[in-house]
């Protein structure tokens, strides 16, 4: 069965998966969605005998139907190899009554590696398939983790350049150093004076600006994206939910067909949307628990049916979730509206003009798969300590948000279903917050000295992605206003004029 893709806002012809991956975002600002969500082509129990690569192949071939088997296997084998520190790629660890799905064993110790080690291979293959000779410029906004993972994936990939914008004052010191020390002649990292939403809005504006697009084309370039707005980022994230369920099944922790709950800490909504797609494909999922930090725009949406970004933007200890415009929610809105592009387009226009929109009662009834929850900064800090004290298991701030939400949900609802919780980053990316939660005195210690203290207390080794940063050359120093983002891109690409 051929799966094609169309914009959530309509107005474009249906295109192939490789074309959607190349474009990144539709010309009218919409996100690409499959014309049909494919069902599994085999019983779920069949996944129990597969390793991560074979699971990935089975899921990807269902969505990326214009790629050949040889192309997909080549991309997958290149993506999931020695750059991960475990052959399992995404191990499951049971602690405090929850199955933590560890998605941080890749080179940048965050869950973004799970897709961004694969995307460059999918994209360069797509360029060849479609006869694209222009150099592909990956344009990305990051709230902390996507940036480094995208840089790591695309560095020195022939035929590509990558520009990453991040909020200068909105990421952890280790996150920032991971980006600004990035090597590679095809890389550019720029801090902006603003928050992630400002960066994301600026990137989307550049994507849809016909004047900018014409200037790129005249100089032999074309934009694409490594954010989860790119369907090539989203589809690989489905894989680890299927894989983790199959692991539980293989280990006898659940029965064949038994429904599990999945808990995901999210700001941009992509990671939990991937779990929803897995459920739609046939994965037995009872509830999808959407965990927010104090920027709880998603929690409020699930409770009221109104998405309202008109609120204070809060800098928290889980910065990758400090987001008020959840881009991937648009895909869900499109689907629960009955794949209605006109409804989606009208709601997104209201979000742009008024900063909020309200869905219909019928659409709200289609959200019964989801439960919203949020954790305060104090609750996040307490959860890190609780899980370590109770289970001697170390989690980062984002995972702690999800863990606190999960614990409250289980107590309040009495729901005892087996639970998979997406653990999205190494605690060593957020050493200052994690050590504070565990009562490790810092004094004047920097993040790297704190990492050593954290390792001494917990017995968990400092990851190479952190220990290699002290003394690394800072190669990217540009900081700009949001209004200067276009010029930063032009300067990097050597494009003059207007």
Strand order of the largest sheet: 3-4-14-9-10-13
Q: In percent terms, what proportion of residues is strand?
A: 5-15%
Mean pLDDT: 96
Structural class determined from secondary elements: alpha/beta
**CATH top level class name of one domain:** Alpha Beta
- According to DSSP, the number of beta strands is 15
| Biggest β-sheet description | 6 strands, mixed
Q: Helical element count?
A: 21
Shape: globular
Assembly type: single chain
What are the segments in which pLDDT stays under 50 over at least 5 consecutive residues?
none
The CATH architecture classification of one domain is: 3-Layer(aba) Sandwich
Radius of gyration: 21 Å
Question: What is the distance, rounded to the nearest whole angstrom, between the alpha carbons of the first and last residues?
Answer: 45 Å
User: Any idea of the CATH topology of one domain?
Assistant: Rossmann fold
Residues in helix, %: 40-55%
């Amino acid at each position: 069965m051929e799966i094609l893709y169309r914009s959530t806002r309509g107005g474009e012809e249906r295109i192939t998966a490789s074309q959607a991956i190349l474009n990144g975002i539709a010309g009218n600002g919409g996100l690409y969605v499959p014309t049909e969500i494919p069902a599994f082509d085999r019983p779920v129990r069949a996944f129990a005998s597969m390793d991560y690569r074979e699971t990935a192949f089975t899921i990807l071939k269902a969505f990326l139907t214009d790629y050949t088997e040889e192309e997909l296997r080549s991309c997958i084998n290149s993506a999931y190899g020695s750059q991960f520190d475990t052959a399992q790629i995404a191990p499951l660890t049971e602690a405090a009554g929850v199955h933590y799905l560890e998605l941080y064993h890749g080179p940048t110790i965050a869950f973004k590696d799970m897709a961004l080690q694969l995307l460059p291979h999918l994209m360069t293959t797509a360029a060849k398939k479609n006869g694209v000779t222009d150099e592909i410029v990956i344009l990305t906004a990051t709230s902390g983790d996507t940036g480094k993972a995208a840089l790591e994936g695309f560095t020195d990939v022939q035929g590509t350049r990558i520009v990453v914008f991040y909020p200068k004052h909105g990421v952890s010191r280790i996150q920032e150093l991971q980006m600004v020390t990035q090597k590679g002649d095809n890389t550019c990292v720029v801090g902006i004076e603003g928050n992630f939403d400002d960066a994301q809005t600026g990137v989307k504006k550049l994507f849809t600006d016909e004047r900018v697009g014409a200037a790129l084309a005249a100089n032999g370039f074309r934009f694409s994206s490594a954010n989860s707005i790119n369907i090539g980022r989203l589809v690989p994230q489905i894989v680890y939910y299927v894989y983790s369920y199959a692991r539980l099944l293989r280990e006898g922790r659940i029965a064949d067909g038994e429904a599990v709950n999945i808990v995901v800490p999210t700001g941009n909504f992509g990671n939990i949307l991937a779990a929803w797609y897995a459920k739609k494909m046939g994965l037995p999922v009872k509830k999808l628990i959407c965990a927010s930090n104090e920027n709880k725009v998603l929690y409020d949406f699930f409770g009221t049916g109104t998405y309202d970004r008109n609120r204070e933007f809060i800098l928290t200890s889980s910065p990758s979730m400090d987001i008020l415009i959840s881009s991937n929610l648009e895909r869900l809105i499109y689907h629960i509206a009955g794949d209605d592009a006109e409804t989606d387009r009208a709601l997104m226009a209201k979000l742009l003009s008024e900063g909020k929109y309200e869905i219909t009662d019928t659409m709200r009834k289609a959200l019964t798969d989801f439960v919203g929850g949020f954790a305060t900064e104090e609750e996040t800090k307490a959860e890190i300590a609780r899980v370590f004290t109770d289970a001697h298991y170390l989690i980062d701030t984002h995972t702690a948000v999800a863990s606190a939400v999960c614990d409250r949900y289980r107590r309040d609802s009495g729901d005892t279903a087996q639970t998979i919780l997406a653990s999205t980053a190494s605690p060593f990316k957020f050493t200052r917050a994690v050590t504070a939660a565990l009562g490790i005195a810092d004094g004047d210690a920097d993040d790297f000295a704190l990492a050593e203290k954290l390792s001494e207390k917990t017995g968990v080794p400092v990851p190479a992605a952190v220990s290699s940063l002290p003394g690394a050359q800072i190669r990217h120093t540009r900081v700009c206003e949001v209004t200067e983002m276009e010029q930063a891109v032009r300067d990097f690409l050597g494009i003059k004029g207007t």
